[in-house]
Structures are given as C-alpha cells and as structure tokens.
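Bumping with the actual sequence this time:
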Amino acid sequence: MQMLITPTVVTLLAVVRGASAPAKLWALHALWVIGNVAGPTYIQHVPDTQSTMLAVLLQDEAYGWPGLRPTLGRLANAMVAVMGPEFQLGSDAYVQTKAIIREMQVGGGCV
C-alpha cells in the first residue's frame, strides 16, 4: 500500500487544484480517507495538502460549494492526527493548520 500513496496523493492534489467543484470535494474526501488510513506514511504529503487546502479556501467561488467546509475541516483534523507528536506549537504544520482554521472561521465556516 505504501507504494501507492505518493502517486495517489499527487493525483488527488492535482484534481483539487484544477477540477470542478464536485470533483474537488471528492478528491478532498479521498485525501481524508488516505490520511486516516496511511497514518505516519502520509507525513511527507502534509505540507502540500495543507497548502492546497488553503488555496481552495482562498478562492472566491469556494464559499458557494455545499459541503466544502466540513470536508476541509475533516481533512485538517486528519493532518493533525497524522503529524501526531510532530505537530508542535510554532511548527510550519501548526501555522498552516491555524491559517486554514482561521480562514474557515472568517468565511463563515463550521469550525
């Protein structure tokens, strides 16, 4: 399974960056599932996943997508779980996650 994680995550992140809203939601959901299943194996993909999540949140049309905020919230939670003890106050992962949550709160999200 470990051999499949990197190409799958890279493909799903590309879908999130360039597809239509429904495809983005499914790709984000798939990333959440992979993050939960892969655990520490996913750590190398956390920075790319977080930057992609933030980019999605900063798109104007993102505020009209039903289900986007809960999906991003679940994915952010999965990234925190994947990082485990490496998720420390002041770390890059912490700062990125805090920015994602802040943007969700400002945009009327469900956090």
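The tokens above came from a reply further down the thread. DSSP finds five helices and no strands in the chain.
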